[in-house]
Amino acid sequence: MHSSTKLIFLSSGLLVLAGGLLLIGGCLSTPRDYSAPVAVIRVANQNGEPMEGVEVSRRWYDSDCGNEGRERVYTDQSGTSQFSKVSANVGLFTGAWRKTYSHLGMCASGSGTQTTIFVRYRGRFDVEPQGKTLHPIGESQQDQDGVWFLVSIDSQSNTLVELSFPAKTKSINYAISSKRHDD
C-alpha cells in the first residue's frame, strides 16, 4: 500500500475511534447513591432571627434513572426546613441504553441530577443569600458556588425565590436573609 492510502485509513480509523469514545463517554453515568441530595434551607429576617412557617419546596430530577419528585415543607421555629436524601443506586451503566438512543436522535439527555428549591414568602420581601455574593447573569443571578438565585413575585403578590443547584451537588446547606418589602 502507498503511504498516502495508509495515512487515510489510519486517520479514518482514529476519527471513528474518537467518535465512538465520545458517544460511549456521554452515555455513561457518574456513580452515586442518590437521586436528590440532602437539603437544608435556613430562612432568617434581616436581623438574623429565624422565620417560622415559610413554605419551602424541592423539585428534583434524575436523568440517569428517569425519576423525578416534588416535596413541600415549612420552616420550623429555628427557621430551618429539611429534605432527606432520595436514594438511588446509580452505576456507570445506569440508563446507558436510554442515553445512547437519545444521543442518536435529535435531543440528547443529560447525566446526573437536577435539584431546585423554591422558597415562598407571604407578601413582598427583599431576599438575598446569607454570606454569599451574587453576580448578575442575564435576568438571573449566580453565587460563587454556581447556585442560580432568582427572585420573582407570583400572581398573588407573594415573593418566590428559586434556587437551582449544580448537578454534582452532593448536599445542600443554604441560608437566605429576608426583609419585608414595606419595612
Tell me briefly what this model is:
The chain has 183 residues and is an alpha+beta fold.
Indicate the topology.
Layout lengths: L2 H25 L4 E5 L1 E8 L9 E8 L4 E8 L5 E4 L2 E5 L5 H9 L8 E9 L3 E5 L4 E4 L2 E4 L4 E6 L5 E7 L5 E10 L3
Parallel strand pairs: 2-13
Antiparallel strand pairs: 1-6, 2-5, 3-4, 3-7, 7-12, 8-13, 9-10, 10-11, 11-12
Helix pairs in contact: 1-2
Defining key terms:
4-stranded mixed β-sheet; 7-stranded antiparallel β-sheet; 183 residues; single chain; alpha+beta; 2 helices; 19% helix; Immunoglobulin-like
CATH topological fold name: Immunoglobulin-like
| Mean residue pLDDT | 79
Q: CATH class, anyone?
A: Mainly Beta
Order of helices and strands: HEEEEEEHEEEEEEE
Q: Tell me the distance between the termini.
A: 84 Å
Number of strands: 13
Number of structural domains: 1
Tell me the major beta sheet.
7 strands, antiparallel
Name the shape in a single word. Answer: elongated
